[in-house]
C-alpha cells in the first residue's frame, strides 16, 4: 500500500516506512453519504439527492526513531507541517494508492510515550471539508499537426457529415469519471484566441494573445483564469472568457476533442469517488 501525507508546502511523510507507521489505515476510507427524500403522490418516499458533508477522520500513527535526536527532529517536522496547514488555511493531502483527500490535522493526542525507545503513539483527527477522494488524470494534446485525426482510431462517436478545417486537431478524451468532473485546462503559447471543444462543451478565450513561454490556466473548481508570464508574474484574466460557460464540468466517459492544431493544451480532470480504488 502507498500511503502518505503531503503538507501544503510539499513536505511528504510516508506513513508506512517504519519511522512513521499507520495503524488501521482502513479508517480513512469509510464511505458515508447523506440523502434527502421527498414524498411522492402515491404516498411513498423517493430519493431526491445523495450528498456529502464535511467529516472528521480518525487516524492512529506510531512514531519510532533510532535515536532521541532523530525522534525529536521528526516530531518537530510533523508538528510544523500540521500547524502550517492550519495557520495558512491551506489543506494538506492524505494519499492512498494515488487517490487523495484534502485535510487539516485538527487534533493530535500523544500516548504511550517511551523515552528510552524514542517512540510515541499519536491519535490524529483529520478534518475533511470536501469529503471526496480525488485522482488527477493529465492528458496533453500537442501542437504537432502531424498527429491530426486518425481515421483508424476507435472514436466514441460518428463524425457525420461535418467538415473539419485543416487547422483543426481532432482526438478523443476519456475522463475515467462516472459523472461530470472538475478540471484544469492549460493553453500554452504561442497562440491566438485558443479554444478546445470537448464533447458538447466549448472552452475558448477571446481577444487572447499568448507569446512563447506564456500560458493560461483555467480551473473550473476555483472558477479562475490565470495568465502566467515569462517574468514569473501571474495575471488575472477572467475577462478573457467567452460568452459560453468556460467552467462547465468535463463530460463523463469518452468525448471527441477538437482544437486549433497549432495550440498545445493540457487537461487535468479531477476524478471523484466516495472511496479510493484499493489496488
Characteristics:
6-stranded antiparallel β-sheet, 279 residues, 21 strands, mainly beta, 7-stranded antiparallel β-sheet
How are the elements arranged and paired?
Layout: E1 3-6, E2 12-14, E3 20-23, E4 34-39, E5 45-51, E6 55-64, H1 68-88, E7 92-96, E8 99-114, E9 119-128, E10 133-141, E11 168-174, E12 182-188, E13 191-192, E14 195-198, E15 201-204, E16 209-210, E17 215-219, E18 224-228, E19 234-236, E20 254-260, E21 264-273
Antiparallel strand pairs: 1-2, 1-7, 3-6, 4-5, 6-9, 7-8, 8-9, 10-21, 11-20, 12-17, 12-21, 13-16, 14-15, 14-20, 17-18, 18-19
Describe this structure in words.
- The protein has 1 helix and 21 strands.
- Mean pLDDT is 86; it is low at 145-167.
- Strands 2-1-7-8-9-6-3 form a 7-stranded antiparallel sheet. Strands 10-21-12-17-18-19 form a 6-stranded antiparallel sheet, with no helix packed on it.
- With 279 residues, the chain is mainly beta.
In short:
With 279 residues, the protein is mainly beta. It is 8% helix and 47% strand. It has a seven-stranded antiparallel beta sheet with strand order 2-1-7-8-9-6-3.
